[in-house]
Amino acid sequence: MICCTNTNTALFFSSIDEISSQIWEDLGCTENIYFNPGFLKSIEANHPKITFSYIVLVDKMNKPTAFASLKMIEFHLKSIKNDFEFLKNIGRKLHVFPDKKPLQLLICGNTFVSGEHGVFIKKNQDKKAIIKELAESINHFVNSNKTLKKEIDAFLIKDFAKESLYITDELKNYRYHPFLVEPNMKLQIQENWLNFEDYLASMKTKFRVKAKKAFKLSSSIEIKEVSLENLDEILPKMTSLYEKVTLNADFNLGNFNLDTYKDLKDKFGDNYILKTYWLKDKIVGFISGVINNTSLDAHFVGIDYQLNREYAIYQRMLYDYIEIAIHKKLNTVNFGRTASEIKSSVGAVPQNLTMYLRHKKTITNKILKLFLQRVQPTPFQQKFPFKNLNNEKQ
Questions:
Q1: What is the mean pLDDT of residues 271-295?
Q2: How confident is the model at residue 5 (pLDDT cuts 50, 70, 90)?
Q3: What are the structural domains, with CATH classification, of the chain?
Q4: What is the pLDDT of residue 15?
């Protein structure tokens, strides 16, 4: 638990339980699942290795105007792989990263989901002023605690869509440097897609054939809904599949504890999606996701990579997310980062998300700016699978 004195503009909390129901009511943010205390508590309770804190910004009348979630993690260099390897070497040579110990990173944002899910600003607020107050409050949070002031190496505020940058670029005045990593892949569900057959019918022949081939290859897979009653039994197998996926990731801010699913399924029921994929008596994959207002957000998946190509497991998962969204009459599917090309082949387009990073040491922070200029999303060939839709980048 980290204690921090409140200021005239900010209240600090070390647990979701400390935030009163009146504050949540005043903020009016709980319909968004990522700012629902039940969701936040589930994440907090199941990740004891992460230190969680929360900021509630207030106005002159002491009324809440914004909410932000903070996490303190150890960022290990070994979590940067593959295409990012050369950047890791540059970062080490420039002393951006410590040589022998992990980087102590304070993150404002959701480490497990892509998107603007870390900072909530109440309606009718001066958003630029709020971002300034947030930056100042984060500084106060760290500098007022001797341990944090000594230990925290760097600050990361994530993820902001293009239309938010005119607000969040205020962070540059606080020595934060913007950079892009992999985009969120996003599919807009069309109004005339009343069922999955309508979705297939809207595709060019080549991509419709590809979809039907994936369904044929995966026809022997049985898809089962996960319930609270059977979750405990299959969680170890799901965790094993999830770990295989994380080992393949180029960049990872932390591993998700799948025990969290029990809380999320209990609290959100049918709005939290969990399905498993079976070949006879063997689990070969799973998908998870959350229905957040009018969007289906894909969360974590698990895949048996040895069987993936033969049975088109991952491709089938992508189609299943789309089918769920159409069935539930949602507007969008957020597929998240990674595997951008195959996601574009089912109709998703990239949504760039900007992060802001600063190092506490002034000279290192100037070097960091040069380092981040080298960080670019992995290029991929964008596919355009639909016959008549405008597939422009978002």
A1: 96
A2: confident
A3: 10-182+353-372 (3.40.630.30), 185-351 (3.40.630.30)
A4: 96
Segment 113-136 shows an average pLDDT of: 95
Q: What is the 3-state secondary structure (H, E, C) of the chain?
A: CCCCCCCCCEEEECCHHHCCHHHHHHHCCCCCHHHCHHHHHHHHHCCCCCEEEEEEEECCCCCEEEEEEEEEEEECHHHCCHHHHHHHHHHHHCCCCCCCCCEEEEEECCCCCCCCCCEEECCCCCHHHHHHHHHHHHHHHHHCCHHHHHHCCEEEEEEEEHHHHHHHHHHHHHCCEEEECCCEEEEECCCCCCCHHHHHHCECHHHHHHHHHHHHHCCCCEEEECCHHHHHHHHHHHHHHHHHHHHHCCCCCCCCCCCHHHHHHHHHHHHEEEEEEEECCEEEEEEEEEEECCEEEEEEEEECHHHHHHHCHHHHHHHHHHHHHHHCCCCEEEEECCCHHHHHCCCCEEECEEEEEEECCHHHHHHHHHHHCCCCCCCCCCCCCECCCCCCCC
Residues forming beta bridges with residue 157, ordered by sequence position? 108, 356
What does the pLDDT read at residue 392? 39
Residue 250 pLDDT level (bands cut at 50, 70, 90):
low
Task: Decide: 178 and 356 in contact? Cβ < 8 Å.
Answer: yes
Q: One-letter amino acid identity for 48?
A: P
pTM comes to 0.92
CB 64 within 8 A of CB 133: no
Res 101: pLDDT? 76
